[in-house]
Amino acid sequence: MNHTLKTFRSCVSAAALAALSIPAVLAPVQAIAASPEDAKQLDQAVAALRAIDTLKADFVQTDRSGQSVSGVLTMQRPGKIRFQYQPSAKMLIVGDGNALNFIDYEVRQVQRWPIKNSPLGALLDPNRDVAKFGRVLQTGNPNVTSIEVRDRSHPEYGVITLIFTRKPSAPGGLELTYWVALDSQNKRTTISLSNQRYGVPVTANDFRWTDPRPKTRR
């Protein structure tokens, strides 16, 4: 295994998983007073996320040292998401509607968290009212919207900044292009999206996975 993948594997944990799994983390935070313009931008960003039915996109995950791993993101609202890493990574993240699963085929282990208890639930749960959470960061560019989200009751989630660009053909006219997560240990992770495809066919098989654990240990 090359140095990039070794570095990537060494930093994967519950906190790192929460950080990367976030188109996402419009998670509950204390209400922040916002100007009417900021409130409008936040509403537009939330509406754009809510307007996504299915999505496929290429992604590149980069850590603070510049090491990168690529893959394909598949999402179906409500409740389902898949991070399919490049084959050499030998790992997978799947949200199957009930839980978020991190599958490590290299060491034959699985970690699992209820979606409703993870930041990812804010994206995947259609009943979650998130319009009043987070705050808009000024970018100086009318075509770029930046939203910082911080869950003060769960500092282990760290800080996530979502970056949207205006695109008329994207749902809601905004496209999530990347997000930057800074966890509670100041580890920075960036997920960059490209080649976003909306309304693409998605089946139940996209959210199934093979359990690598020996049957006697499950």
**Biggest sheet character:** 11 strands, antiparallel
Give the structural class. Answer: alpha+beta
Count of folded domains: 1
CATH homologous group name: Lipoprotein localisation LolA/LolB/LppX
Helix fraction, binned, reads 10-25%
**How much is the average pLDDT?**
77
Number of strands: 11
DSSP strand (E) fraction?
35-45%
Distance between the termini: 27 Å
Number of helices: 4
Would you tell me which CATH topology applies?
Answer: outer membrane lipoprotein receptor (LolB), chain A
Q: If classified by CATH, what would the architecture be?
A: Clam
Residue windows where pLDDT falls under 50 for at least 5 positions? 10-16, 22-31
If you had to describe this structure to a student in words, what would you say it looks like?
- An 11-stranded antiparallel β-sheet has the order 6-5-4-3-2-1-11-10-9-8-7.
- The chain has one domain: Lipoprotein localisation LolA/LolB/LppX (outer membrane lipoprotein receptor (LolB), chain A), CATH 2.50.20.
- The longest helix is centred in the first third of the chain and has 15 residues.
- The two termini are 27 Å apart.
- The protein has 218 residues and is an alpha+beta fold.
- The chain has 4 helices and 11 strands.
- A hairpin with an 8-residue loop joins strand 8 and strand 9.
